[in-house]
Write a structure and sequence with these properties.
Layout lengths: L2 H11 L18 E4 L14 E4 L1 H7 L4 E3 L6 E3 L5
Antiparallel strand pairs: 1-2, 3-4
The structure holds zinc ion (ZN).
The site of zinc ion (ZN) has 8 residues, from helix 2.
Amino acid sequence: MAETTKEQVRQRAAGRCEYCRLPEAHVLTPFRIEHVVAKQHRGKAALGNLAYACLRCNLHKGPNLAGIDPLTKKRLFWGLCG
Ligand SMILES: [Zn+2]
């Protein structure tokens, strides 16, 4: 992934996780740039498919495209639920 693309994602996120909105300044572990649709699912390294993510969100999401909300039992799609 090009450094310019990474920098564009960082600037768009303005120092916050793009999933949970946690400010990067509040944690010790550096945020990561991850694929919303994982590479294994043919996700591209394009701005619209990249997210600046805290470690917790990155590990929780993994390569999945969707998950089940434990409270509502509804299917949630990453990148579409804010
Ligand atoms: Zn997060």
